[in-house]
Design a protein that fits this description.
It is a single chain. With 244 residues, the protein is mainly α. The chain contains 14 helices and no strands. Helix 9 packs antiparallel against helix 10 and helix 11 runs antiparallel to helix 12. The longest helix is centred in the first third of the chain and has 17 residues. 38% of the residues are buried.
Length: 244
């Protein structure tokens, strides 16, 4: 794969020597540089591509991605907005803006962008999981549950959603449903320590002490944090003593 990347870079370099203003060659060479984390060079190449083809929305989108990788968030947002001005239904950009808003704890903005991305490309059903996260961030637990279920309706094996859905059910005091989804989470990924941990607490709250102890013991096999180990060992001791 490294040899292939080097060969691609050589071909693009030759093309740029012959035609420095070749917008596509600059674009693809920028992708190569981005993959190598050579962000300064990637940015310069993308700027050259845009200079020669300013109305290509995919160029602005890629430059935004490079800026984001380079931790230049404001510049990234400017480029993504430039891409949207050229192509208002550019699903990749709308999804990227939704993710960025979610990371900045702007749940309302994230949901709006994700909704537009789904409208532009209804096949992107995984966006329902991101909408669920945004609704959870806004403490809209029922809406989060509905979004997570839509994601799972489209992709039942989307295991990353299982613990998030379980947590939303906990917030709605629907502990039986939470147990179901935490169990699915640990069945799908037995090394998911935090799902074992949360399952233990929900089982404890449902007075299923034996099952809670078992879940907490699975957590202890996976967890390395001394403080959490101490906490869980104390909980197990109390449960075994019947001291709740």
């Amino acid at each position: 794969k490294g040899d292939l990347d080097a060969a691609t870079a050589n071909l693009l370099g030759n093309a740029l020597q012959k035609e420095p203003g070749n917008a596509d060659a600059n674009f693809y060479m920028a992708k190569v540089k981005r993959k190598r984390s050579e962000y300064t060079q990637a940015i310069e190449l993308m700027k050259k591509a845009i200079d020669h083809a300013p109305r290509r929305p995919e160029f602005h989108y890629e430059l935004g991605n490079i800026y984001m990788d380079a931790r230049k968030g404001n510049e990234a947002l400017d480029e993504w907005k430039a891409a949207l001005a050229l192509e208002p239904k550019y699903a990749d950009v709308l999804e990227a803006l939704g993710k960025n808003a979610l990371e900045r704890n702007k749940a309302k903005d994230a949901i709006a962008f994700y909704d537009k991305a789904l409208e532009a490309d209804p096949a992107r059903t995984r966006i329902w999981a991101a909408i669920g996260e945004a609704q959870a961030q806004a403490a809209q637990w029922q809406k989060a549950i509905e979004a997570y279920l839509k994601a799972l309706g489209a992709e039942p094996g989307f295991k990353e959603v299982y613990p998030k859905l379980a947590a939303a059910y906990v917030e709605k005091k629907k502990l039986a449903e939470a147990i179901t989804w935490y169990r699915k989470a640990v069945q799908a990924d037995p090394a998911d320590a935090m799902s074992w941990y949360q399952l233990g607490f929900v089982l404890k709250d449902k007075d299923q002490d034996k099952e809670a102890i078992s879940a907490f013991e699975e957590f202890l096999k996976l967890n390395e944090d001394p403080k959490m180990k101490k906490e869980v060992n104390e909980i197990i001791f109390d449960l075994k003593q019947g001291d709740r």
